[in-house]
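== Protein entry: sequence and backbone fold ==
=== Local backbone shapes as whole numbers ===
==== Amino acids and backbone structure tokens ====
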Amino acid sequence: MRRLVSALVALVIVDAIHATAQEYFLVHGKVTDATTGGGLPYVSVRVEGGSEGTSADAGGVYSLRLRRGSHKLLFSSVGYRRQSVTIEAGKEDTVRCDVRLVSVSLMLDEVVVQGTIAPIVTLPSVGGVMLSPADLKHVGGAFGDVFRSLQGFVGVTSNDETSSQLNVRGGSAGENLVLLNGTQMFEPFHLKDAPNSSLTIFNTALLKRILVIPGGFPARYGDRLSAVVDLEYREGNGRSLEGTLDASLSDVGATVEGPLSGSLTALLNARTTYSKNIARYVIQGEHSQPSFYDVQGVLNWGSSETGRSKLFFLHSRDWTVGLSEGSYGADCASFSGTYGMGPRLQMDATISWYRQKDDLKRSPVIESSLRETSNDGGIAIGEAKMRLTMETGERSVLIGGIDVQRHSYDVRQSTSYTGFGGDSIVAGRLRTMYVAAGSYVENIVPLSPKLVLNAGARADVSWLTREFYLSPRAILNYHPDSLTTVTASYGWYTQFATHQELLAASIAAASPQRAQQARHYVLGYSRLIRRDMTFRVETYLKDIESLIPYRRLQGGELIFSPVNTGRARSYGVDFEASFSDQQVMGWVNFGVLVAKEQLGPDGQWQYRPTDQRRTITAVFEYRGIPRTLLNLRAYYGSGFAYTDNSPGTEFYFRKHYPEYKRIDVRLSYELQVETMSPTVFVEVLNIFSHRNVLSFTERGENPSYPDANLLLGRVVNVGVHLEFR
């Protein structure tokens, strides 16, 4: 009898459990960033009008058990537009619901969300593009340098496979605003002791987001004339400990990431190089032995409800013997956070410190009258930034902010020359401290269902020169259909003198230079041809007043004017086609550029050193063979302008170098190993060994045929990439 009762009770319990199980279902999925495609950590997932809810994990994955029926799920995260999704379960036990959230401050349109499979995603509201770090990982050449990847981007001119510096639409490398996790980076390069060689201290493997605006950028970005490169490092893996190891003939590096406790995650990277092998990437490397290392890391904590915080640090050091003797380096630390202050209001804040220290003596790479340059001292910049973003409507956003910088310079320079009158030495010291500040407001508002306006203004002030500037800016986006975007932008831009320019004024015993000012006019057209292909064309005009001109010497050294002596103008048109599917990815660019300057009120217009009439770049990646990846990069430039000092010519008379050509190839193969995922690669830079001209040395009996100083020939590198999970 007891057995019968027990059996009946067990049957009732099983039946109840079965009935209860049939009454519920499981909804699960992944929440990602609509632009980058990366998982969003700790997103809040709630049922509207109910008590059920959960949070996504560090990778954006969530799951929630609900009663059968119809439910409206609300997805929210600080810094992103809230999104609601209605789901309904019939007889299914599980329902998958993937969601892509749009950044509030970017206010992307649906055409952008649909096109996120492409390697280059248009961001109409800021006048730029978002690049996929995953797609650029194998494009950066040796060291995986993100800036070398950007040399294949539309509007960027390249004439040197050994340098990572970017010249955008006729502007110099010093005219670009470079941000890393919200912190301005001033000279973020290794190998800069050789003027025509450089490598950024950034690591592509750590990047979450790459935003590039080649011109016409909105009011939130200030104190630069030409372009914006806004980088953000990703959060460390919050689910498990993992790492990577990269080693090649030129360098070795390792990355470790994982959870520490609760919502606290860490990401750490270290890299170093070998002096004997790295010399292959430097002009006249047989006479130089450079080395470097860098260490950088990120700590992330918080949630989508309370806000997210990030602590970032970076330390880099270079040293060299040979043509250059000494060392230099940079240190950076920042604390930033994104905090919700209400259902439609968020605050972003950053406090950072940047220091750069030099102790270096350099001999010229190319024979010239310049004998030796000695740099000693450094710069230190402290910065505090705050931004408020408020949703004022379904597609309207109001953004306002302020940033304050404290600059401290103590730089000494001594340069010796050999001339017809004998040896001479020019020496000077820049020692000053001052404060610069900027404030801005942007209002992104739809004027109609197809027309969106980003109107803003920026105010900048420098206590060094007692200057104040007000800069209005506007970006207008028109969407005639869901696949097409027409963009027009106009703005005023200001750039205060850098420490290099101020040093030139100090050496000449002149007053600090005034700020340079620019006007940007940009008109663009973008068309999503298919889900995996986008075509874009932009035409632009950039006028610069109060110009601080510079000369590039034969070895690549820059000599800045101590005064604002002229004006400059750049104009042209850029064409771009990007594509991506399961087997191929890449883009092709073609640019036409004219960059001129006028030195003095009565001077003649002549070419800027960055003038290059035609530029063609192509980036291609093929992954159709299992476990194999083929990357191809091709560059063509019609030649930069240079100063001809031949007898009988004017001092600033400009000619053009011969055309520049280069093709790089990289082949990667993934091995099958259970405990790790090793990938081996071989890479060849300048595979056809094109003879590209670095500079001319005007010497010999016939100055009409000067001796050519050449860039690198063919360079081969092999390496391995290991992933540990």
Summary: The chain has six helices and 47 strands. The chain has a mean pLDDT of 86. The helical segments are 2-23, 110-114, 133-136, 146-150, 275-278, 499-507.
